[in-house]
Each structure stands twice: as C-alpha cells, then as structure tokens.
Amino acid sequence: ISKWYLLVAAAQQGWWWLAAVILISSLIAVVYIWRIVEAAYFKPLSNAAQDAVEAPLGLLLPTWALVALNVYFGVDATWTASIASRIAVALLGTPG
C-alpha cells in the first residue's frame, strides 16, 4: 500500500522517473522474495535441511525481542505516529 501511495504521489507531481524507479524496485523485490518462497515451499528438503538444529540462544533472544517489538508497535503505534507527525510538521510547516 505504501508503495502505491508513493507511486501515485510521484505521478501527481509529474516525476515519471521516480515512478519508474519505484516500479523497478518493486519488481526486483518480487524476484528476490519469490526465490525465498520457492526455496521454502516448492523445493524438496535436502538431507542437510532435515538434519538442521535449532539456532543458538544468542541468535534467538534478539530475534524474539524484535518479534515482540514488532507486535507491540503493530498494536500501539501512537509513539511512532507522533514522531512521524512532528517530522511532517517540521518538514511541511502545517499540521496534518
């Protein structure tokens, strides 16, 4: 959704070069995400993947901390929205 709004804004401003950059970057993202989806869901497991072990605790703790923060800010975005609002006022000069 955010890329769509960026694309619409670039088109409204007449910045077709920026709209092209946004479209190209989106297509590149589709290509590399598809490679991950293909490897995860459509290829059979190799012997090495079947013998995989759990990640060490030093990698799991920061990962779960980021998961918790992601869920928290997904539910309560008032802090980040207030920061974005102040930045928008500073850049544009008018409250939203």
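That was protein one. Protein two is written in the same sequence-then-structure order:
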Amino acid sequence: MTGVAQYWSDLVTVALLGADRRDPPQPIPGVLADLAADDPRPSPSQRLLQQVAATSVIRRAGLMPAAAGSSTAPFAAPPVDLRPATAPQATASWRTMVSNWPVLEDEWLRAVVATGHRLAGELVAPLLARHRTDPVRRALVHVGAGPLAAWVVEHQPQLAAGGLARTSAVPAEQLATLPELTTLVELAAVLEASSDVVADAVAGGLNAGVYGVTHRGVLVNAIARVRADALPQLANALDRVDPSRPIIGLAYSLAEMARFRHRMLTELEPA
C-alpha cells in the first residue's frame, strides 16, 4: 500500500493544482497501469478522474489485487457446523431486542443453544463485541456460534475476550440458568402461575392503581420471567387497561414487550 499511498498523494496534488497546469502522474505498475493502457483517455483531466476512481477502490479494499498466477494461499474457511442457523427473523429480533428490551437477551441466547441452533454468521461479530468482558454471556456466544467464534476472533483480534471474560471459566449450569431479576414479591409469586392469574396480577394491578410508572422496571423484569405460555393472554389483558388511566402508555409498552418475547421464542422453536 506504500506505493498506492504516494500515488494517491500525487493525484491529489494534481487535482488541487488543476490538470491544465500539471499532467497526472504515470500510473504505477499493475492494475492501475493496465487500466490506463486498456482504456486510454484523451485529456489529462479524464485520465486524472479515471485514476482517482480506480485508486479510491484500491484504497477502500486495503490491498492491491494479486498478480495473475500468484501462489497466495486461499482463505481458510471456518470448520463446518451442521446446526441450523438462526433465521433472518430471529436476527432481526435480536437487533430490536438489544435496542428496546435488552433484558430479554439472556433468554434469547439460551434459547438459541437449547433449541439446537447456531448463531447466524452476521450476528457473531456484533455479539462478540457486545460481550467482550462478560464471562457468562461471552461463553453463551461461543456455544451458540460454535467454531465460527474462534475463527472470527482469529481474523479480528480486537474481538477477543477482555477483563474477566478472558480468564473466567463458566460452569455449565450457569449457562443453562437464567439470571435472577429484581421484581416485587407479589409479582415474583405469580411468575409460574396460570395465564389468567398472571394477567390479573399485572394488568389488574395497573388498572387498580397498584402499579404506576415508577414500577416500570420491576414490571419489565416480571414480564421477562413470566412463563412463556402466559404471554399472549397477558398482552391482551394489558391492551384492555382503562385508556383514561395515566399509566396507559406503560400498559401498551408492556403489552408490546409481552408479544415480542412470545414471538422471539416462537422463532427459535425447532421446525
């Protein structure tokens, strides 16, 4: 790239002075010279624009194309992982989740592993970067990504683990267990209850004024841990909260979260 950098500097100088005052530099040997020979331009300004465009492509690519017949070793592919990749819908859900409902990511990662999926390739680098220093989530990403995780880190060392994640060994049972979330005692008591009991505890509590906007955090945590089959009925009950109440915005937001969590788990169910 040194020769390309100097050539680019020379092109910039000519562009600043004007091609009518100075001719463009001679193209450096290789693809740039070949382009000039194969597609000759009649005027200095046209030759300058041609070389500027071609050199810009090379600079963006970061290297010069190899000469024909070169013995450059082929790029080694990662080891094969026969698990089905997470579907595009699940990938889109992860992006929505980390923006709107990050509390759900722990369950999503465990569901990927538990349902026998592997992380889609486009998710591996973002997840490695996101959890560089978190030993548990980092370990889950490695399990979900399989051999692709180590392959990506080999080629992008900046994604290697840092902090505690670099040295911490995570017990298998910790990978399988969801972390506890802080919620109210009365809500924690109904997390495994039937759908109607869950709906009455959350939506009924909002309707009755038991919970307000200051309880948003503990309500979000409760919906993140409510039994999955209760989520549709809970969402419907939240939709029916009295719209004249000040907490109606919170109710609709929680209903959206309940439906989102149900959908994200459904997307990962085995076909």
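The mean pLDDT is 90. Keep this in mind for the problem set.
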